[in-house]
């Protein structure tokens, strides 16, 4: 037996702990068993439920087409795992190789996988956030509570933030016949993800469907009555709106607090790992026993200049989990890189919106198919002379082709004959992304390469 075979045989034994009973955590556990891992497997989750599917929570569940409790993820195989549910991880001791739980228990591990994902960014004022009628939407319980509130027929719903989730909630409200106001501090919905050129289409889409869309303003306060029920929202332009429900949709926060003091490169932007999902420590040294996958992970991608990308995509969570699990039980020569091309989709106001690649890297844009004024088009993004991304409104059939263009580093502007073109925008234009230093809602792909302005780590020279 070769040395690599000996190593691989050893790696298929021992104790693996997965912190995060999520889509990534479940798919990683299944892959570990598929790859022949026979050791003990423990999954830790802060919610009392086994892994469930999150995309339906802002769509089918709020419309009453599916119950929140029916969103459990299907199993591909029996993972023969110990489940520690309803108890969050509180800390990590790398020297002792154990995870500490909030109830005081410790879980020893030989290898650790971090799949803790994200949580909804809370409203900034705790007392206002506690008012009856103020919601966030991230968990199964969040969705069930919001469904019941919408079903009761509130007079007006306020959605704070017009990213993808906020826009989907606004769409659900209009489909249910509810009056809805959307407050967005940026110039347009989806602008942080797709740029203002494309976001103007999203603006028109919302207003055409009866949304009271207010851009360039923020909500400064939520006011309750004496019974503690939400009754009014105050905006930065001095206006006030009487509302019964407010849904706070201000982006996601990565669940990394429990890693404070662990010595890992983990913070508000996620857990940094290499292309093989191995986590870095704060000194940039890769670990060999700790891995990360899913929304909480950020890793370099060769197609995008080796920038560190944080991806909030369903498909990425699945694929990265499989790569991480494979590498956890493989010898070094058999490990694989995570090279998934980012993809995202959303359905709102009857329109299917999809993207592939990293639009936020784009410095130029051209409409290759369709026309912006028809809300049926493909916008192609370029970066330093190559195709970097594409986004479509009701034209998703083209995105497979543009994925191939991205993977082939095809030149931008496209040099092939364009078809179905009904626009006067023949020359590339600036996609008009907002200044990244100004507050806006996070895109579904966040570029998190090193910034010289970040000074979060203090290096201390070792003693002689």
Automatic annotation (TrEMBL):
Its cofactor is FAD. The keyword Oxidoreductase applies. Signal peptide: none annotated. Residues 344-424 form the Reductase C-terminal domain. Pfam families: Pyr_redox_2 (PF07992), Reductase_C (PF14759). Keywords: FAD, Flavoprotein, Oxidoreductase. It is an enzyme of class 1 (oxidoreductase). Residues 15-321 form the FAD/NAD(P)-binding domain. One of its GO terms (molecular function) is oxidoreductase activity. It comes from the Bacteria. PANTHER family: APOPTOSIS-INDUCING FACTOR 1, RIESKE DOMAIN-CONTAINING PROTEIN-RELATED. This is FAD/NAD(P)-binding oxidoreductase. It comes from Streptomyces mooreae.
